[in-house]
Each structure stands twice: as structure tokens, then as C-alpha cells.
Design brief:
The chain is mainly α. The chain has a single domain, classed as Growth Hormone, Chain: A. It is built from 15 helices and no strands. The radius of gyration is 21 Å and the shape is globular.
Length: 403
Amino acid sequence: MNPVGNVDDKRVMPSRLLRLYAMETIATLGANLMVAGIFFYMQAYFGWGQQRNLLLASGQGAVYVVGALSADRVAQRVGRRGLLVALSIGLALLPLLAAWRPTPPVVATVVLVYTLLHAAQWPALESLISSGAAAGQLSRRISVYNLVWSGGGAATIALIGIILAHFSRGAFFLIPSIGHAAAILLLFKLPGESTPAVTEHAVPEPELLAVRTLAMRLSRVALPATMATIYSLGALMPTLSVIRASQPELRTLLASVWMIARFFTFMLLGATVWWHTRPRLLLVATLILPLAFLGITLTHKLAPMIACQIVLGLGLGLIYAASLYFGMVLSSGSTEHGGYHEALIGLGVLLGPGSGVVAQLIAPGSPSAGIAAIAMLLFTSVLASAALGLLSTKRHEKKTQEE
């Protein structure tokens, strides 16, 4: 007799999972236009430079933390589907306000409120996709989840240059609005909230549990650094000389190479499990972040910039996948742990661009000051991860000797 929660994904509510992945695709489209790609809009239409873009990004980080941490509390009251319906309505209406009155104060305010709501939807989606899955099933579901949002994000960012060059200003906001309206229809056809099926599978042996716990801790120490890197680059990319020297239609495509590399990293990680028991790989991935960031922002040549983006995508993919997978497998797919994962993302968005803003206030007119401050923050994450890894190793050795 097969336990309900242990049936293969191909036989467990396939339409439910497909609808959730479709919902995720729509959320990704909106997020990459209104949250990550908005800096290209602000630079193109309002002439915003590095400092204003970084300031907006740090504001996004602050509200992102609030939205992510509030998701579980609201979901407990109205259910995860109810939460997603309410959020989708708000996310569909907000871009229309920016399209109606596209001035810097209105657009910036809309972006911040949109980011707040957008942050709350991810924990609910992650929990709904992960609930009731055994460890092997969860690895596959998380892999598909990562491929959907990263692939959709790369495609969206790459196309922003074309949207800005050939469509009206309002189209930038109408696209996510229409997408979220379609998501509402998907959600009404989603099965109602119910208690997740209990997954019956063997409790992992203490050694595997210790490895999973260490991997989750290492990845979550590094996760803010990944978002500090991503959103700092998002704010900086439109101002880099190597990007500005390219054709307008190609600028966002060249700036999205790291997203394409991250997509293929997720594909590799989803097809294998060898990284599940090698948490030290996360230390290498953490070291990649500041080195690749400096390579991207300091070079004036296209080929090295692209090469550094590819390396960056590898590091970002491993850290993100580990944080989400190990958090979900250790918590049985809880919305609460999804909220922690997303809150750490918001923390990184706040700290990375925020440090760049502070540096530019200290040294006005010096783009290199902001880059240096962000790089120092990323190297701090490397030291924190190394210290955590060393401490965990010593504790394990001591426990082994005692036994």
C-alpha cells in the first residue's frame, strides 16, 4: 500500500503542480520587470545613475524582508491559496498606477509596494510545491521550481532592452499587470487548502542529518551575499561602460549572462545529488561571489565581463539551490522556512546596494567607492562562512571522539 505522500509526482495531482509552476512563471515575469529590471527603466526614462538606483534597491530589500516574514502569519489565517489570490489582485493593480502616471516618485513608490507584496508570495508558492514530498521527490520539485523562475528571469531581463527600445513606456507596466490578472484565474481553479499529506519515509541517519543541517546553515549565511551581488549588479549594470557601449537592444541581454549560467547550474544540480553531501562546496561558491563581482564591475572589456558572469552564475546557483532545498527538506516544506529563505534574500538586497549608497555619500561622484564597499561586504560573507564551517568541523570531531 502506497502512502499518499509517497506516490511519485507523476501521479500526485499533476494539474495542481502544473498550475503552481504556471503561477511561478507569471510571478517571475512580474518580478523581473518590476523589481530586478526596473533599474534599466529608471536609467532610460529618468536618467537615474548609480546612487539613485542603489538607493531604490536598498529600499526594495527593506520591504522585501517585511513581506517575506509576514507570509507565514497571514497564510495561517487565510490559507496559502487565499494569500496568493489577495497578493495577485494587488500585484495586478499596482503596475497600472505606474503606467497611468509614470513619474519618478510614483514609479518608485509603486515599485516598493509591489516588492513588499511580491516577497510574500514566494514562501507560499515554495511551501505549496514542496508539501507532501519525500526527499527524492522534493529534490525534483525544487529543481523544476528553480529552473522555472531562473529561466523565466533570464528571458525577461534579456528582453527588457527590446521592450524599452520599441514599445511605449506603459507596456513595461502593462505586461506584469496582465500576467498577474491571469494568475488570479489559475488560482481560482487550484484545489482548496487542505492539510498536506504526511510523507512516510525513513528518518535520515544522524550523519546525513548533520550534513544537511551544516549545508543549510552555510547556504543561508551566504544567501544574503548572493542577493547583495545580484541587486548591486542590477543597479550598476546600466551604468557600466562596457554595457553602455553596446547597442540598446543588447544591453540587458549582455547583463543577463549570469542568469543564463545560473539556469544551467540549476539544471545540473537538479539532475544530480552529489552536492547534497558536500557542504564544503558552498565555501567555494561563497568565495566566487566577490571575485566575480569585482571582475564584472571593473573590467572595460566584454569578453572578461561575460566570463566573470558565467562563473558568478555557478556560485549563485549552488548557494540558492542549497538554501531552498535543505530548508524545505529539514522543515517538511513549511511556509515559515520559505519565509526565512526569502527574508535572507531581502536582507542581502538591503545590505548590498545600501552599502554602495553609504560609500557614495562618503565619497560623492566616485563609482569605485560603491563597488569597493559592496565587495568588502561580500568578502565578509566569505569569512563568516569559513568560520561557520571550521566551527562545525571542530564540533563534529569533538562529538566523534566522545562517542
